[in-house]
Design a protein that fits this description.
215 residues, alpha/beta, Rossmann fold, five-stranded parallel sheet, 9 helices, 58% helix, binds cobalamin
Length: 215
């Protein structure tokens, strides 16, 4: 037990340091003892949280954050098949993307992975996606839910543009819109007329389950 905690701590430390090779091999090792969820939460995400605090306090700068994000992605690549293992037949389709002007994708990718693990099909549009692309993707892929992520206070306002764009295109009644990302709140979701908000990936899965049960 103590050893597992040590291992998860080491993953967090190496993630923060940005050593992708160490994170990859430690994640492989940890999978023999710990659940994929605990490695994600207590290892990788904990490392990203530490670097986030340092970034905020100007103790580290963008290059360090990028290197840590790359290390996190190396660990996530190892976890992905495990998190998706529970998947059987698709329980519904979710179109996911980070809004226009915003390049942050770590949170979106984690939400996508947990949704896939819970049996949903996720179509990932990537980052910096604008209203037109989203409308085109909805027409092409016909998802039940659209998930939008934003990490910047300057880009979160694009979420409202997307909802207005859906109304204009006559698609709003066909799709539920859920939003998330560090600056997003339930109050903001209510204000712009989104159908749901979740503060983290685990709650996102419950949110999607609830919304799909009601359609
Ligand atoms: C990593 C990071 C970066 C990386 C991004 C790498 C990548 N591939 O994503 C890089 C270095 C590129 C970067 C760049 C910038 N960043 Co930055 N970045 C961060 C940092 C440190 C961590 C974000 C992160 O990944 N968190 C970990 C994940 C797991 O958490 P999360 O994203 O919140 O996601 C969870 C929930 O929010 C939720 N969720 C997320 N999305 C969704 C979607 C749905 C549908 C649902 C339901 C839920 C959900 O579930 C997730 C999992 O639990 C944050 C600090 C912070 N504490 O947030 C700053 C931060 C977001 N960045 C910030 C800034 C200012 C910038 C830059 C403008 C810096 C600059 N001067 O150039 C640029 C902007 C680039 C751009 N155009 O997007 C500010 C934003 C301030 C603000 N108020 O807007 C922050 C808050 C740092 C700070 N305190 O100053 N950044």
């Amino acid at each position: 037990m103590e050893e597992n905690r040590q291992l998860l701590h080491e993953i967090a430390v190496q993630c923060e340091k940005g050593d992708a090779d160490a994170v990859r091999s430690l994640t492989v090792e940890a999978l023999e003892h710990c659940s994929a969820e605990s490695i994600l939460n207590q290892g990788l995400m904990s490392g990203m949280e530490c670097i986030g605090v340092k970034f905020k306090n100007n103790e580290v700068f963008i290059p360090e954050v990028l290197i840590a994000a790359r290390a996190m992605k190396a660990g996530m690549a190892v976890l992905k098949p495990r998190l998706a293992e529970a998947r059987v037949a698709s329980k519904g389709k979710i179109l996911m993307g980070t809004v226009k002007g915003d390049l942050h994708d770590i949170g979106k990718n984690i939400v996508s992975m947990l949704l896939q693990g819970a049996g949903f099909e996720v179509v990932d549009m990537g980052t910096d996606v604008g209203v037109e692309t989203i409308i085109q993707m909805i027409r092409e892929t016909e998802p039940q839910i659209l998930g939008l992520s934003a990490l910047l206070t300057t880009t979160m306002i694009c979420m409202e543009d997307v909802i207005k764009g859906l109304e204009k295109a006559g698609l709003r009644d066909r799709i539920k819109v859920i939003i998330g990302g560090a600056p997003i709140t339930q109050a903001y979701a209510d204000e712009i007329g989104a159908d749901g908000y979740a503060p983290d990936a685990a709650v996102s899965v419950d949110l999607v389950r609830g919304l799909l049960a009601s359609v």
